[in-house]
Design a protein that fits this description.
Blueprint lengths: L8 H6 L3 H26 L15 H9 L3 E3 L4 E5 L12 H10 L4 H8 L8 E5 L2 E8 L3 E8 L1
Antiparallel strand pairs: 1-2, 2-5, 3-4, 4-5
Helix pairs in contact: 3-4
Length: 151
Amino acid sequence: MTQPAIGNEHLQAAQPSAAKRWGIPLAVVGAIVLTIITASLIGGSNDVNGTPTAPPLTSIESAREHCMAGDVVDDGHTLVIDMRGQELGSGSLGATEVGCLLDALGAPAYVTSRMDSTRALDGMQDSSWDGLAASWTYHPDDGLDIIVTDN
């Protein structure tokens, strides 16, 4: 009786090809990489510990934080400075806080000099510097009221 010849055919059938052996692990690695990339794009920026990082402060927000004075509005792009006048309730800030804010914003001397010399009869005044624009009014009863915006 002759036995069927056992050749390499059954060995080849029993062992998967190199492409089949590596196909599944490569697919898993690819899926993991794709998941990481997608999560980083959707999740925004994170610091090393995985907590979200805050966007950088605008120059207006930085001035407010430094001087602890004024009201920031318009998502950090406008600073309202309401200085005390002679009338009760006219404003809350004194000259020291206003000076701190203008200094922190880098207001040049020509702007602060114009503010200092503004009279009630002059109406609304304005000036700009380094990407910032300011408009202000002054009345002895209401004090100096300044609005600073970034351009």
